[in-house]
Design a protein that fits this description.
Elements lengths: L4 H21 L19 E2 L4 E3 L5 E5 L8 H13 L6 E5 L10 H5 L10 H17 L9 H28 L7 E3 L2 E3 L5 E3 H8 L27 H6 L14 E7 L6 E4 L2 H4 L5 E7 L11 E6 L2 H9 L4 E3 L2 H6 L2 H14 L3 E6 L10 E9 L11 E7 L2 E6 L4 H12 L6 E5 L13 H10 L7 E4 L2 H6 L7 E9 L5 E10 L2 H10 L8 H4 L12 E7 L14 H18 L4 H7 L5 H16 L7 E10 L2 E12 L2 E12 L6 H20 L5 E2 L2 E2 L17 E6 L17 H13 L12
Parallel strand pairs: 3-4, 8-18, 16-17, 20-21, 24-27
Antiparallel strand pairs: 1-2, 2-3, 5-6, 6-7, 8-11, 9-12, 10-11, 13-21, 14-19, 15-16, 15-18, 19-20, 22-23, 23-24, 25-26
Helix pairs in contact: 2-5, 5-6, 12-13, 17-21
Protein name: Xanthine dehydrogenase family protein molybdopterin-binding subunit
Pfam families: MoCoBD_1, MoCoBD_2
GO molecular function: oxidoreductase activity
């Protein structure tokens, strides 16, 4: 029989489908045992891929997440200590190597575009399959507010498994039933008086069978849920903590880079010969466009014996740039916004959520329309981009603070032309990540520079100006809303369409070379997944390819979509002649957790007493990364200067591991979001970024910082994200307070009164 093309394709799909089905129903990859033997501290015994025990019973946890101020160097040891029954003070941490068991599963699953209210079989099936796929990928990354969420079960299982192995070893040695043995404080005991420390049993426990692993009931927790002081605070206060920029290697050189100021720019001329003769200068090297190796635009590097010599020499290069003219003529903030609006005029976009039927206003209904905008934003981490690299004898050593160890190795391998097993990664604290250190451009550059130094280590440091003008920015966005209200003030129809670049498409292209295609949840998150119970609603988003490099910024799409959505909800409340708080309450009848959080934030504000004259409250409620946050902002205005005095915040993030760190993260997220709300804007003109440092890219100063009060709602639900969810509600809360105070509805960020 002749085989037609259609039959061939269908046959191929059948085979592929069978393979996928077989893979899909097979068990998930386990996350306790590493694929390669652990390299453990001398004298310690590894009981699984997460922990080892020393003869003195000290426990070593192999930390698979990057500490960038979110407190995981305290919280993750708490999970191990809780299930292992040891004091937290007895748990040491060392950075984990690269292994599939350390891959981030939760972050990939959370990236699926399902509505939180969807509890259907399709959602659960796709989540399960994605989780399985994530385990196979094993990408080791810290992001998406997923550190606790991703580690919650596996670290508790690692601790419980090790405890069971230690009990089994003691029971075998004492010839008693394991069920008669108990543990406390790193000691296994039996009712007849026998005792042995974990250190004494560890070597025997390696060969014991833990049997069925049983996790503690939350009622048995002695550490989890209790305030614990941060273990990294003392070293950060006294200067002992080592960030990437603090690294010192014997005979290390320093390098600075000057990159093309406009996209697509190349070096036309420079006085490199003269600069090479300046004191301390070792070499002047041109970095060609390394985009194919996941890095930034072309630039010129000066390598010198000290940082200041390199920095001073860089300033003397007098570089003339060429190329990029088309981009220069076309790229400006105005042209970007114009294109986003044009796309909303002509394209319907991808519909992420729809219920009922969105119809035009009837005769007795009021139509409300609004357009909101948000600009590009820089990450502006306090520690500028840097990486120390050494390429010697076919091996690469890296000293860097990174959120993305897996791709740090991949890009170093690609640039240096060595296998990944020939790369040694030394982890450092991150002086701010916020998504910027998910990128590995500075690592690629550092390796390329180290290849020019004949085996000497070199530390590449970006200046603040280079950092500000060569970021992977938070996308600019435009959102349009339409709603109808009947005579009773009820919303009968709600529609929201937005337009922006796609971070995920750019990231997949940068890292995997994939052609940009398909929907991207981050463009519409915070809009399509809201809890408000509108019977007829439709939320869609249009992806507009961005010439500007864009990346994940703290809370990603939620950062601006919360401002859009919560501001428009306030507009609807005003049009309905209802209080913004009661209006929201009426839309949350089937969402008790959201209603509880909203009421708790309002109660905090009310407890503070009557507002001073000239002050007003604004409210916002938003869920991101699984965590529900409500904020009430107390605001005043004098001579058009906006002052935020107090922020009252309530949240439900599921089970809390360390309440102390949760409160810190909320305070941090509020200030981060407030900086963006009041000042944040990266603008382009003639293809170039106009901002250069903190004088024209302001952040909230100490005297501008509000008091932040936090109420954590007790919950028995699985832990959710924490590092980012405090950021999205602050901009709309402040904006809504400004409307209550001045009558001006501000629909663009940053917030500026006319």
């Amino acid at each position: 029989m002749a085989i037609t093309r259609r039959r061939f394709l269908l046959g191929g799909l059948g085979v592929t489908g069978a393979l996928v089905l077989g893979w899909g129903v097979s068990p998930m990859r386990q996350r306790l045992e590493p694929t390669a033997p652990l390299v453990t501290p001398q004298g310690t015994v590894a009981l699984n891929g997460w922990l080892a025990i020393a003869p003195d019973s000290r426990v070593t946890l192999f930390l698979h997440k990057s500490e960038m101020g979110q407190g995981i160097s305290t919280a993750l040891p708490m999970l191990i200590a809780e299930e292992l029954d040891v004091p937290l003070s007895s748990v040491d941490i060392v950075p984990a190597g690269i292994d599939k068991i350390y891959g981030n599963v939760a972050m990939l699953v959370d990236g699926l575009p399902f509505h939180p209210d969807d509890q259907g079989a399709l959602k659960h099936g796709v989540q399960w399959t994605t989780g399985k796929f994530a385990r196979e990928l094993g990408i080791q990354v810290t992001g998406g507010s997923s550190s606790i969420k991703d580690s919650w079960l596996v670290l508790r299982q690692a601790g419980a498994s090790a405890r069971a192995m230690l009990i089994a070893a003691a029971a075998q040695q004492w010839k008693v039933p394991a069920g008669e043995c108990t543990t406390k404080g790193g000691i296994v005991s039996h009712p007849d008086g026998k005792q042995a420390s974990y250190g004494e049993l560890a070597a025997l426990a390696v060969h014991s069978n833990p049997g069925q692993i049983k996790l503690k009931d939350p009622k048995q927790f002695t550490l989890i849920g209790k305030d614990q002081p941060r273990r990294d605070s003392a070293d950060k206060v006294n200067g002992h903590a080592q960030f990437g920029i603090d690294v010192r290697v014997p005979e290390m050189l320093y390098a600075t880079v000057i990159m093309a100021p406009s996209l697509g720019g190349k070096v036309a001329s420079m006085n490199d010969a003269q600069v090479a003769q300046l004191p301390g200068v070792v070499k002047v090297h041109t970095l060609n466009d390394l985009n194919s190796k996941v890095t930034s635009v072309a630039g010129v590097v000066v390598i010198a014996k000290t940082y200041w010599q390199a920095r001073s020499a860089s300033a003397a290069l007098n570089i003339n740039w060429s190329g990029g003219e088309v981009t220069q003529q076309q790229l400006s903030s105005a042209s970007v916004m114009k294109e986003l609006r044009q796309k909303l005029d002509t394209e319907s976009g991808f519909t992420y959520y729809k219920t009922g039927s969105v119809q035009a206003a009837r005769a007795n209904e009021t139509a409300i329309h609004a357009e909101y905008t948000a600009p590009y934003l820089a990450h502006a981490t306090m520690e500028p981009m840097n990486c120390t690299a050494q390429v010697k004898n076919g091996k690469v050593s890296l000293w860097v603070g990174t959120q993305n160890p897996s791709f740090a190795l991949k890009v170093a391998s690609k640039v240096a032309g060595v296998n990944e097993d020939q790369i040694e990664l030394h982890h450092a604290f991150l002086g701010g990540g916020f998504g910027r250190r998910l990128e590995v451009d500075m690592i690629a550059q550092a390796v390329a520079v180290a290849m020019q130094t004949n085996g000497q280590a070199v530390q590449l440091i970006w200046s603040r100006e280079q950092d500000m003008s060569h970021d992977f920015y938070r996308p600019a966005a435009v959102a349009r809303f339409s709603a109808n209200l009947n005579s009773a003030g009820q919303v009968t129809s709600y529609e929201n369409r937005s337009a922006s670049g796609s971070v995920t498409q750019q990231v997949l292209q940068r890292y995997f070379g994939l052609i940009p295609a398909g929907p991207d949840k981050t463009t519409a998150e915070g809009e399509f997944d809201m809890p408000y119970e509108f019977t007829n609603q439709k939320i869609a988003s249009v992806i507009v390819p961005s010439a500007v490099p864009i990346g994940y910024w703290r809370s990603v799409g939620h950062s601006h979509n919360a401002f859009f959505k919560e501001s428009f909800i306030d507009e609807l409340a005003h049009a309905a002649k209802q209080s913004p708080i009661q209006f929201r309450r009426d839309l949350l009848k089937q969402h008790p957790r959201h209603l509880t959080v909203l009421n708790a934030a309002v109660a905090l504000a009310e407890k503070a007493g009557p507002l001073p004259q000239g002050h007003a409250h604004g409210v916002a409620l938003h869920q991101s990364f699984g965590t529900i946050v409500a904020q009430v902002a107390e605001v005043s205005v004098q001579d058009k200067e906006i002052t935020v005095h107090n922020v009252y915040c309530a949240l439900d993030c599921g089970i809390v591991v360390n309440p102390n760190v949760v409160r810190q993260q909320i305070e941090s997220a509020v200030l981060f979001g407030l900086s963006a709300a009041l000042f944040g804007e990266i603008s382009f003109k003639d293809g170039k970024v106009e901002q250069s440092n903190f004088h024209d890219y302001q952040v909230v100063r100490m005297n501008q910082a509000p008091q932040v009060q936090v109420d954590i709602i007790a919950s028995a639900e699985h832990p959710e994200g924490m590092g980012e969810p405090g950021t999205p509600p602050i901009a709309p809360a402040v904006s809504n307070a400004l409307f209550a105070l001045t009558g001006q509805r501000l629909r663009s960020l940053p917030l500026r009164l006319s």
